[in-house]
Specification:
It is a single chain. By secondary structure, the protein is of the alpha/beta class. It contains twelve helices and ten strands. The strands form two sheets. An eight-stranded parallel β-barrel has the order 3-4-5-6-7-8-9-10, surrounded by five helices. It has a two-stranded antiparallel ribbon with strand order 1-2. Helix 2 packs across helix 3. The protein is globular.
Length: 346
Amino acid sequence: MEFRQLGESGLKVPVLCFGTATFGGGNEFFREWGETDVKEATRLIDVCLEAGVNFFDTADVYSQGLSEEILGEAVRHLARDRILISTKATFPFGSGPNNKGSSRHHLTRQIEGSLKRLRTDYIDVFHMHGFDALTPIEETLGVLDTAVRQGKLRYIAASNFSGWHMQKSLDISRQFGWTRYVAHQVYYSLIGRDYEWELMPQAISENLGALVWSPLGWGRLTGKVRRGQSLPQQSRLHKGAAGGPVVADEYLYRVVDALDALSGEIGRSVPEIALNWLLRKPTIASVIIGARNEEQLRANLRAASFALTEEQVARLDEASQTQVAYPYWHQRQFRDLNPLPPSYRA
């Protein structure tokens, strides 16, 4: 398993990370993702470690803490320094006006709660799950810096920030000499390439490692969604991809056709190719894979066992290209002033 530096930090992470949103299934939304119990979670984690993946991602909001609890129980048989744990906070946890956001009140409570649920003394990577526009950024970063200095958090990161959210946060950290975000957990896939417009150039400029969530486009790139076929019996898409990206059918089918063609040529599955395409892109530190069962997990782990060629990546780039939003389409007319990021990472 290849390991990469996580942004501007000394931490090295495997190029695949196991996401545990499938653990628990504590409410209707997360039951669409999975209902993995402690026994099965322990087995899946052991399969990951056999493949060299020691990085596990969760969040307080996943089944309202149940995912963290199951992960904490499932890794009890392992030495703590053998694994890396990532979790997040920001979104509502319980009821009440102060049980959400990135305030000192909420974050202090959630950091302590995550440590308890995960049965650990520290969290390796702690994310702001989203941007809180109502709390001063200085308040949020001050809490995180204190937690790092106390040894409760090793590194901090953000998720789902816009470019200016991230830039302002980085600049404030510099101003006060506080711990800075070293990574950005982002949505990025062959059918969701908005990350490339602004956040990827920013990540290159600021040395931020990208941790990719939903790399198979909210389950659309599993190889089970094709033109003229009904959805798989188990799929979050039955709920209309609530909370997820909207993807035009014809665009999806065009990308899947390109994946199918390449799959037939190189003998790799559609999801393996879709995941490996991400690993060939700049700034990507780790791609977060999920799995309902061991078979799915082993299939996704195979995505790190080969490398698409530059020509193969270019074919997928062409098939998945879309019109970019303003001002990016205007900037791209002047490549000598606004060069694009590299399209291929060996």
